[in-house]
Amino acid sequence: MTIHGLLLAAGAGSRMGMPKALVHDEHGSWLVRGVRALHEGGCEEVTVVLGASAAEAAALVGELDVSVVVADDWAEGMSASLRAGLTGLGGSATAALVTLVDLPDVSSRVVARIIAGAADAAVLRRATYDGRPGHPVLLGRAQWAGIVAETSGDRGARDYLAARDVELVECGDLATGRDVDSRPTAD
Description:
Number of helices: 6
Oligomer: single chain
Distance between the termini: 41 Å
Number of strands: 9
Largest sheet: 7 strands, mixed
Helix content: 25-40%
Structural class: alpha/beta
């Protein structure tokens, strides 16, 4: 299988007070950290979906091996970013591993666990943290058209996944998987 990492980082971060793609903490850029986690975890290619402050965010990953897709309709919510990302992927991927920029503790170890043993283009896998569903989510290529057709607003693929048999992969021993909505203090 060829796994393509898809990092959603398009939102304005209204609760954060700035686009989350631009956030830095004591460990550096969340955007750069997310790209590295995807590559180091086993994704052969990585695409970042940007929207708010796209040019500034793209500059942060300019030196990395990453493709950038801009979701022009990013303000419509996470579904717009997901649709832009899935439709912007090249033809070689068997599956897309989708994660969010505001999950700074999701590491390459989580990514590797989710993709380990994935067998075909129909795969649907989702990380859980102490039983709570989260990201990353592995979406087989056979699922993409349905996801693109069925997603809307700020719910991403949540409803699509809820209506299907999704393999849950516990990752609570590796990370919290919690999205961060307030600005960290950098030392």
